[in-house]
C-alpha cells in the first residue's frame, strides 16, 4: 500500500508543486497522467523516497516516513519499493544477471538466482542474462528494469514512463506484465506517464 497527503515540493521559488493525494492499495493499480513538465517524475521520486517533500506525508506499507532518519528511509525503500526509471540505469561492468541481483544485495537478502532466471524467462530475455546491459535493445532493457524492480517482491512498484520507448505491441506486453506480476505478489502498482495508450488500461487514474 502507498498513500500520500498534501505533498508539496519546490526546485526553486518559481518551480513549486502541490500534488494531489495518492492512494493505491495492495494488488491495486493507479495511473498518473500528465503532460511533459507537469511533475510526474518529481512525484514518482517523492513516492520512491528519493526526494524529500517540503511538506506532506507519505505512507508505505504502514510506515509513515515523515519522521524517519535517512538510514530508515533507505531501508524502507530497499525492502518495499521496486522502481522502474524513465531511463534504465545499469552498472555497465556487470552482466544483466548481476544487475538484476543487485536489489537483493541492497536489501541485505541472499542473491536469488532462481528467481532472476524465472523472471527473465517470463519477461523474455533469458538468452541475454550473461550479456552486458548496454548490448540489449531499449525494449529489452525496459524488461530487465522490470525484472530488477520485482526481485525483492516489493510492496509497491513505481514505474516512470515504462512504455514511452515501445511500439504498440511491446507497450501492451509490458503493461500486461507489470499488471500480472504486481498482482502475483500483491503489490501496489503506480505508473506515471504521458502515454495516452495507457488510458484505457487502468481503472484508477489521476491527472496532474
Ligand atoms: N533537478 C531539477 N532542478 C530544477 N528543476 C527541475 C529539476 N527536475 C525537474 N525540474 C523541472 O520541474 C518540472 C517537472 O519536471 P518532471 O521531470 O517532474 O516533469 P514530467 O512531468 O515528468 O516531465 P516529462 O514527461 O517531460 O518527463 C520541469 O519543468 C523540470 O524542468
UniProtKB/TrEMBL annotation:
Alphabetically ordered keywords of this record: ATP-binding, Nucleotide-binding
Keyword ATP-binding: yes
Gene3D superfamilies: P-loop containing nucleotide triphosphate hydrolases
Keyword Nucleotide-binding: yes
Residues covered by the ABC transporter domain: 2-208
Pfam families: ABC_tran
MF terms in GO: ATP binding; ATP hydrolysis activity; transmembrane transporter activity
GO cellular component, one term: plasma membrane
Protein name as catalogued: ATP-binding cassette domain-containing protein
Organism per entry: Dyadobacter psychrotolerans
Lineage, broadest ranks: Bacteria, Pseudomonadati, Bacteroidota, Cytophagia, Cytophagales
Amino acid at each position: 500500500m502507498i498513500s500520500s497527503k498534501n505533498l508539496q515540493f519546490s526546485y526553486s521559488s518559481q518551480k513549486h508543486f502541490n500534488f494531489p493525494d495518492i492512494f493505491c492499495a495492495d494488488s491495486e493499480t493507479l495511473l498518473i497522467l500528465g503532460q511533459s513538465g507537469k511533475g510526474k517524475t518529481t512525484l514518482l521520486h517523492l513516492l520512491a523516497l528519493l526526494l524529500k517533500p517540503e511538506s506532506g506525508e507519505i505512507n508505505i506499507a504502514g510506515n509513515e516516513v515523515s519522521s524517519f532518519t535517512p538510514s530508515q528511509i533507505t531501508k524502507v525503500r530497499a525492502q518495499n519499493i521496486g522502481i522502474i526509471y524513465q531511463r534504465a540505469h545499469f552498472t555497465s561492468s556487470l552482466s544483466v544477471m548481476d544487475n538484476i541481483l543487485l536489489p537483493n544485495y541492497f536489501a541485505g537478502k541472499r542473491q536469488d538466482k532462481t528467481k532472476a532466471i524465472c523472471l527473465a524467462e517470463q519477461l523474455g530475455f533469458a538468452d541475454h542474462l550473461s550479456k552486458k546491459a548496454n548490448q540489449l535493445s531499449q525494449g529489452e532493457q525496459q524488461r530487465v528494469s522490470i525484472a530488477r524492480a520485482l526481485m525483492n517482491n516489493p510492496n509497491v512498484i513505481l514505474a516512470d514512463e515504462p512504455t514511452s520507448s515501445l511500439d504498440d505491441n511491446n507497450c501492451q506486453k509490458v503493461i500486461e506484465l507489470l499488471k500480472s506480476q504486481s498482482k502475483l505478489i500483491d503489490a501496489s502498482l503506480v505508473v506515471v506517464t504521458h502515454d495516452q495508450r495507457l488510458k484505457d488500461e487502468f481503472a484508477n487514474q489521476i491527472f496532474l
